[in-house]
User: Fold these one by one.
Assistant:
Number 1:
Amino acid sequence: MKLSKLAIVAIAAVVAVYVRAIYFTPIEALQGAAQKILYVHAPAAWVAFLAFGLVAVTSGLYLWLRDPKLDYIAESSAEVGLLFTTVVLLTGPLWAKPIWGAYWTWDARLTFTLILWFVYVGYLVLRGAIDDRDMRARYSAVLGILGAALVPFIHLSVYMFRTLHPQPVLIKPSAPSMPPVMVTTLVSAFGAFTLLYVWLLRERYAYAIERDAARQRLGMEGEV
Amino acid sequence: MNPPDNAGWYHAAYIVAALMYVGYIVSLRWRRQWLQNSPK
């Protein structure tokens, strides 16, 4: 299996973040080692928001310019964003159980995030259900834009609603509410997972191009 | 006061996240391989 330079850099960065988080970042005094879930949970949430933001931007541009490449980018970013949202929804409960005493609570942020996940599952199902390429791109562009509208609500939900979920420790107007060594690990994790996203997006985009070429070669209108 | 002993939870979360990413890239490679092997 050949790996691009970007792939090697992304994999190395994620492995470095794992090593730093496990071996070189102190254990938080109140929450214990479970707090280290922050270093995979929060960056995955950031990347999911970034991915769905890109879906909205490229979908809007597609509706304007009708360039199929923009639709491929939106489709690819939606699938990769869904992967990262799944990681958020799996790692969150593993953090909640030892700290809150329950895997899940129906508070605003968790519920909105679950709805976001369902919206983008629906987005991918919609794409698979429509054979006509232009119609598929237009309908999914509208859904992609509407789904991304949830992102600011999810980020601000901890301010808008009473919730168990902690307020942001890094992405907020005031200074970070953690020691510098933890901030460094968290910022590194944000960078590493963003690189991982860019690599996965490029791979998924290449697949979308190849799939469409194969579909045209075979004279098929639907997904291959 | 000693912090609570709950390292197993973060080990589980790190493993789950790694499996998700590796599983996705493997599935993507398989899909591209399948396309390349589709009838010409």
Number 2:
Amino acid sequence: MKNIHIFLREIKESLINIIRSGFLTIISIFVIIVSIYSIGMIYYFLNYSNEVKKGIENKIEISFYLSRDTNEVRIKEIENEIVNMNGVESVKYISPEVALEELIKEYPEYESIFKDLDKNPLPPTFFVKPDSVYSINEITSKISKITEVSDFFYSKDLVDKLLFSIRTFAFLSIIIVSIFIGIFVFFLGSNITVSIYNRRDDIEIMKLVGTQPSFIKRPFYIEGIILSLIGGTISSFLLNKSFSEITKLLNIILPFVENQNLSNQLNTSLYIYLNLSAIFISLIVSYFVLRRYLKEIYP
Amino acid sequence: MLKFVGVSKLYDDKEALSNISFELNKGDFLFIVGPSGAGKTTILKLIHKEIEPTRGEIFFNNSSLTKYNGRVYLLRRKISMIFQDYKLFKRKTVYENVSFPLEIQGFSPQLIRSKVLYTLKMVGLEEQVNKFPHTLSGGEMQRVSIARAIVNNPDILIADEPTGNLDWKTSFNIVDLFIKINENGTTVIMSTHNEEIIKKYNKRILYIKDGKKLYEKYPHIS
């Protein structure tokens, strides 16, 4: 029961300090909102870029031709070889005969020309679907080593640009998130430092009247948690609104990307993670700042 | 209850206190007297464990004060201190200042209220409960400080020049209050260089000068 009274007293002390800090409290909450919002948006776009990648992956195929004199046995061997390659999702073989039939179906007006040919000009063709854009280079490298392969095609420029964009975006995201976490840590740390400085006389008196160290420290931790929760809740609300609006806009601009439910998928878990992360960071920051500035009080 | 055994204290090779020994029993009243810089505050700070002795040992309730290393707050709940500059929480009311030592120990709000109001009545501040320190006179602020120190029923009350900033009349009122607290069973140690106070009250005196005990005088028994 005594501990409950002490805990309630510490919460009261924290709330009083938050109100008394006034402008500093507002600045801290603002910084927390901006930091969490930015991290949330970066997370959203990372997920979105992943969806873009998936959308493009679905459309990427490597096609390659074998020389016309390759026999059926060898064609089967090559097919097995490709099926067993790492990163290959599916392989489809089109024989010259089937390819010609499809060509005639596609261009029926030229049927007579195609049928008058002495020899089928179309080569045995394979269509390979990679499981990821990251597998393309490895697959094409292996395919190019097969002696019977005469030529192969895939959207190299598009894939390279896509890979570069995804990697650049991920790298920049890590840098931006780190910067925002740094700003968050700096402002929260400054807030606690200034609070300790403002309350140094009170802390000195507390020490002299027999206050246990935890009673002095815990209100600072509680204060950090409360500020993080206020900032986290406001930024979660803003993220929720932003996600649904941006998703609508992106669906119009990039209709091939399947992101209809992206904002819903992200909502609950992301908000919980962001709030918990903010609380965790505030506890760590509080711990180090208090350790640095209060160690002289109860050495 | 409290025992100094050959206690010395050095500050940067300068001896602030030299080989001091004395003993106090429960319910005693002691004036520590001496000129400024004699070492009076050093003795009180040693009792309150704000500083450590360089030599010798201090015992409280038959245990060395070293027992409270790392848990000094427990000692300060048994030995309360009153300061010349009051050391009140500026942003707390009189009631909040006095209730603070009870709140940090987790007493119920009802018990805190009854103890605080009783103590404030005892020091004559029952009308000032909701006032802030800056609206009070020096004497009233010292009474708040005393109320905060005794609300917790300490074993020992130590006061460092508590009348230093007060006029004669208020000073005597404050010492009268200490006498009343002492009569209720609390051991009181008060430092002062005010000769008038020492003459008026027939109490035990420990006179120190330049960090040394010059003499100890016991009250006349009539």
